Give the backbone structure.
Amino acid sequence: MMVNCHAHFWTTKAFLPTMLEINHGHIVTVASSLGLFSTAGVEDYCASKFGVVGFHESLSHELKAAEKDGIKTTLVCPYLVDTGMFRGCRIRKEIEPFLPPLKPDYCVKQAMKAILTDQPMICTPRLMYIVTFMKSILPFEAVVCMYRFLGADKCMYPFIAQRKQATNNNE
């Protein structure tokens, strides 16, 4: 929570007053696709990312209501990024070739393109928009079926098992 959510509060608190004064600036919120939809086993991570997405959306509405059109906002929501943080996370093997972990430099390029074009939100890959939309309109049990089909319902279990083993081995 401190890094994924509270850091955004404190950073915004430090810079927003001057931005409001001059009606100029750009607030970039780095969240995750797991801030838009969740999975089992990483409830704390999802909660922190959902929190920062809510903070970003509320702040964006606040700026619009205050007619501070010179202050832009961009929400960045990448899928699994290949940094090693979630090493072992696996979706269904038949789906993996279509949704491999993203390279960090690709995510940075996509985020920068969104920032430079004042795009309010960027999900990478674009398929994440569809998953988010489906979650919004389908009943919960249908979403569970979709997660099971993709292998997203238990995708973090191998990661969690590796972490437990590393902890037990004092690594």
